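Friendly challenge for the regulars: who can give me the structure tokens for this chain first? No prize, just bragging rights.
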Amino acid sequence: MAERRRAEPPADLWREERRCWAQGYAVVCGVDEAGAGPLAGAVYAGAVILPRELEIEGLDDSKKLSPRQRDRLYDVIRERAAAWAVAWADEREIDTADILSARMLAMQRAIDRLSPAAEFALVDGNRDHGKHGAIVTPHRTLVKGDARSASIAAASILAKVSRDRYMEEMARLYPEYEFERHKGYPTRRHYALLRQYGPCPIHRRTFLKKL
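First reply, four minutes later:
Bragging rights claimed.
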């Protein structure tokens, strides 16, 4: 008789926040970005402070969720968060600096918009600075933080949904590029349309060197 495989226990999404609270930081935010890889548009960042130990059904890394799930959680997070903010760095800033610096600028801007202000930030990933931008709020980086921290998971959803909606707006301004389909990412179809029409004002020129 085959042994029944045990289900994996659910991840404790509050462990990292508890570590911060134990170190004396009372107000902790999570921060994440979306849109580092596309050929067009801004990179977006979300920052969220959640009430302690708040349970939000279905909260997870935004990449693991369907668009419908993300849209539902986007509304729940904004309604139930102690504070939330969304910010961005646009394609001009990306081209002038670099994408890593732009990511840091967007995340710090989101943190700076929080009210009440965060005393400490949990930052998704393993980078906290570039040549032209850095996270200056006291912080700790977390690899795969959107699967380890409730605050980062919430921030990842706000960033992803906000950027997707922005790209849908850009699709109405520049319908020939079909941004509503690929959100600016380097798909085969996006490259084909770029070769047909050339870049539009929101394309990142430093990302188009292969054309």
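Strands lie at 28-34, 43-49, 83-89, 120-124, 139-142. The domain at 15-162 is CATH 3.30.420.10 (Nucleotidyltransferase; domain 5). Your move, everyone else.
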